[in-house]
Protein 1
Amino acid sequence: MESKRLALVITALVAGAVLLSACGAPAAQSNVAAPTRSITVVGQGKASGTPDVAHISIGVETSGASAQEAVSANRAQMTTLLQKIKAAGIAAKDIQTSNFSIYADQQGKVEGMPSSGAGADVITYRVTNQVNLTVRDITKLGDVLDQAVSAGANSVYGVSFEVDDPSKLEATAREKAVVDAKARAETLAKLNGVSVGEVLTVSEVVGGVGPLYERASAVGLGGGTPIQPGEFEVNLSVQVTYAIQ
């Protein structure tokens, strides 16, 4: 009997606690914050400087009735070319082979030869050896070109100029991009009747790998012709999100 009374008392207490919880407990409050109003813009900046390094591709192309003949001629001519280049002040670390190829050039039938006879096809073997040069004193570029041509270089192309250490130009372009972003944000805010607040997020916009570099191209290359390095330009973009006040 005593155990039954104890069970009834416990049941009554539990029921009362549930009733009090349902009737007297305050409603739970929402912790979800209102979304922050913001303006996101992309600012752009650029900076330019005078190039101090030149890059150029120079090579020798030879031909012969056999592959061995073409390779032998190319080896001799290329050896002389490299000697001249080094004598002009180009360090070995700034000379890098970029292409070496051998191919057969079939010219077709010789006039008067039978269409299916031996020796009817004229085949010439061509060998190309190309090196990329880095000229760290661009005032010597004209001399380097003259020396290369006199040594037998018959393939010269891909001349470009750049700044060896572009970090200062990058810093200037980045600073201009941030200023441009603030101006764009203020213009958008004014058009919409609000004002710009604090910076919420900022990131550098990268299209590819790193900033965009505009390398100057050489104009008027050749023996005795002055070299025109032009300007080297760095372009940077930053994306900035501002709070709206």
Note: The first strand starts at residue 38 and ends at 49.
Protein 2
Amino acid sequence: MRVKVLFFGSLRDAMGRAAETLTLPDQADLHQLLEVVSRDKPSISALIPSLALSVNEEYARRDTKLKDGDEVALLPPVSGGVDRPPFATEEKDGPLKNVLGRHSELVTTKINTAGIANSMKRGEDGAVVVFEGIVRNNTRGRRTLYLDYDAYPQMAVKQMDMLVDEAFAKYQIDQAWIVHRVGRMEISETSVLIVVTSAHRGAAFDACRFLIDTLKKTVPIWKKEFFEDGAVWADGEPFPEKLVN
């Protein structure tokens, strides 16, 4: 059988390619796929234990059986579907509609924080909590020139949708939005925006913290930092154990 394998972030650089098609025995599992990949590229063996794997855009255990035509992604720890049309993310888009509920998306344009937050305000809510991740000008003493974010787009949006649904299940909130930008970002630009509304501030604060903390561990988005003296992929937080076994 033949399966398509995708590589992201630092793994893509190590492999020297973004994707390849492998021929595997029928009923092969992800363990066997990893053996083939590391045999062809021994230098990545040290990365294998830290990887999460997905099959057809869903996280998968390493004993998952594969079938012909599957799409497998090898996912290094994240730093943090098809692109949806951005919802008025640029200032030039003008006044925003008050769209209620839950929303997540990836965008390639500047994020209009004030416009999105204002569009979510309604009379029933006593709190709007806004979190912005901002590109800073240094990392561990090295001057940062700019950042470049990479993502597995379809899976990233699915995972963000699941996070928003989980936030609604955990907390008494009325609305929750996640907007993450990909591509090149300059110093002081917003890379990720989370906005939560609720009748009471406690639930809004708790849900917002849950969303950003979990996003940084589970959503397949990677950050490359460009310095005056070179560039590196940012060290990601380890995946939760259930995602790498």
Note: The radius of gyration is 19 Å.
Protein 3
Amino acid sequence: MESWRLIDLGMAEPLEAQTFYEAVALAISRDLSPNTLLLCQPASPYVCLGYHQELEREIDLEYCRRTGLPIIRRSQGGGATYLNSDQIFYQVTASRESSAIPARVEDLFEKLLKAPVQVYRRLGLPAEFKPVNDVVVGGRKISGNGAGLIDSAVVLVGNIILDLDYDSMSRVLRVPDEKFRNKMVKSMSEWVTSLKREVGHVPEADEIKMLLKEAFEVVLEIRLQKAEPSGEERRIWEEEVKPKHLSAEWLQMKGGRSLSEGLRAVKIAGDLHLAEVDHKAGKLIRVRAELRGQEIQDISITGDFFMVPEETLLRLQEALMGARLEESDLEQRIGKVLEESGAQIPGMRPRDFVEAILKLGEALPS
């Protein structure tokens, strides 16, 4: 049975809460530190940007500047989000040589996320692992997780969600308009949840940390010994990790693919995204949809086109529920509605609506 460290950083300022595990991972890679589980809470709110994302396209920079919210780009992928002390972070950092750590990322998530699942179940919730990297309760996400390599160390980071501020979560993101933001708040509240929402109160942080310790010991078959960060880890963080994350080059790097204007997608939970696209044909077509993978869960079509009779558009939106972003499926559904209704769309073709909806796929992460 391996012996690991348990480091509790307590209430840490945002940059330390978000990045100190990188210093630990570098120390592990250099054979300076043993495998470690870190626990912490952000002492104040901040915005966290995914490694592959573009700062200007994802974040409402003026709002963050006005409200004094720091923005930190993390070293793992995923989407931008608002974080505060209503999350308890768990950060697993280990050598790839550890017998407790699976080699494949999918297996890593499946094994290690049994720990937060156990914690939520101990707190009375029927939590389940949902591939690839979520923990859900009643179909709603209640833990977000990421993983990667730092030098030769494996890292898995995630959170126990105590409570959620849906308005702030939506407000920090750059969106096309307020209708999109309102829809995003609604979708988040439907698909992302918290301990407070599910059990009516927030358990003590120390209780949750003890449950995390016990769960990771069982899942990884290890012993966790309480410890403090080493002097070498503090030095690595101060001299290597912290300067990198405070640099304009790191924050503003073009890590993600560049999307065309008029395309926007926000991850809600798991493979559920809210996307909006603009398509200029004879007239403007704007499509906003909730997508699970490539399947349309909800859709709204607006624009400056004319469709007579007007109620045909409602029928068209209803017919597209459950459709996949596949040309043949969309052509069949759209063509059937327009033919049966005898609709007229001056200056437009049914094909224009097919092309507009297919653009949703361009907005989704690849």
Note: The first helix runs from residue 14 to 29.
Protein 4
Amino acid sequence: MVGLTSPRVVAIVLATLITLPLAASLYQVPIQVSDSLEPIVIATTAASVGQLMADAPRFSPTTLRPMRYVQARWLLNSVEATGVSYRAVFRGVHVALLMLLIALFVIAVRVRTWTDLAAFTVAFPVLIGIHTFAAMLFEAFPVNHYAEVGVCALGILVLAQQPPRSYVPAIACALLAFALSVVESGALVWIVVIGCAAARMRGITRSTVIATTLLIVGYFLVRHSLGISSPGIGGMGSGFGATFYSADALKARFGEHPLGFMAYNVASGLLSLLLSEPRTGVYGTAIWWKTGTLHPVLVVNVVSSAITTIVIGWYAVRRLRVGRAAWSDADRAFTVCCLVILVNASLTAAYIKDEIISVGGLFYAVAAFIAFRELLASMPARSLAASAAMALTLVLTAGLWTFRDLGVHYQLRYDAFKLRNDWAEVLRPDTRENWPRDPTVLALTRRIRDEAIAVRTASPSFMPRWGDRWWIE
């Protein structure tokens, strides 16, 4: 029986105390106009869920995301059935996904000892503070699809840590199919399956590998048969060096010779996960070199990430050079984390967005926990001076990541104010000619607008004046 003061319980309490205020900040963000209103309108005007599924391939030539619209339809039905606000339902799902991510992370790291707990106090701020986690929370879709993929990927890792069960292949296929139906990076769920199997994690058997592989092959065959291609250079804006380019500018500059730009993106995606630099392909260090202006946020982010990545690299050299037969469960999980980080970085070949590498950020935090735990466990064998230096470094690292965690609250509150004001431009009396003609769509838009404007948000003028320099790049 687990005592109330056991390391596991303390870890759960700490995670809860940190997550609840974050959930409150997330819930304050109104439903966004961009990327949210259009799918909601499409979902409400469709004749049925079946029609949404049938029409999904025609919504975009480069994406196949039927569950984006189906989920919006289900949530709209929930509003009608319960009579609660649209904000309570849609933002409530975002909060629920946040809670699931935190719960799965706590389960995956498996805090058992006081050393585990000490490592957890450093790794959990890494999870919350890494820029990809914040980008995931800022997701503008009606339902947070990148968070859903993160839940599915961490779910596979948790299943892999358990004894093999007959139902795991079915669950893994369900998670993969769902993730693929909301966003293309759902393919990372299959990568986690393959990684866990290659690392010989006991919960993933050959039948799970075969079933999920057949599923993902079928997915790509369906995309091909529907004529859905992958986005190329110019599909979205992205950064290069010290400049962010629009989609058209990227196509004009790199469209005819894309390989160099694609290599730049993949390398930058990996560096972004390991060093929090660059962001969306733009290097803050390049801006510093060009303008002579160094923003404090760049220093905080790079130093905290660099120390963490050095510890992760130390663990990789220390543990993974032994034969795979001698690997512990932690070594196997660490290997999977490294694979996910590398593959996720490759998904940024066409353009870089922080949310695209958000799954890699989750697994980076898991890898950090494993590495920090090993570092702490090695300290008794070291000299007093070395142990003291390591302890001070860990305290500094935890402090920097915790400071970044506070920045997530700042950014969410700032976004809540900005997005609330965006709705003031919708259904303006002086633009009545642009209002929706469909009475149902008009009523829906007006109600969501009224709910968003009614949200009480703090003006940035009441926030710390130094917040932008320390928390926003």
Note: The radius of gyration is 23 Å.
